Amino acid sequence: MEQDEIIAKSEMLLRRHQSLFPSASLSQEPHIGDVFSLFAAAFNGGLVKRGCLSADALFNKLHVRIPGVFEQPAGRELYDLWSAWTYAWQHARLLTCEPPAPPYRGRPKLRSVPFTARSGL
After folding, report:
1. What is this structure's pTM?
2. 43, 78, 79, 111 - which has most CB atoms within 10 Å?
3. DSSP one-letter code for 93
C-alpha cells in the first residue's frame, strides 16, 4: 500500500468513525483491526522507519485534510495507537522467547522412594 493510499484510508476511517461511532473507542474491535491493518502496511512498507508515516508525519498530513483532527477523541486515539505500535515494532528484536514446553506424554512415572518412619514425631 502506498503512502497516499494509507493517508486516504486513515482519513476515511476517522471520518466514518466520527460520524457513525462518535462515542466508541478505536481501541476496540472491529475498529482497532482496521487501524492496525493500515499501520502494518505502513510499517512493512518501510514508511514508518523512513519517517514518511511516523505518528507525527501522519497527523501533519491528516491535519491538512481534517482540520482539528487532534482535538477529536478518535484522532488522539489513532495517534496514541500508531505511536505505541511504532515503538513496539521497532523494539521487537529485544524480546526473548522461552522455548516451548515439551509435548505432554501422559502421567509422569513416579520414582519409588523408600519410606522410613521416624520415632519421636
Report:
1. 0.73
2. 78
3. G
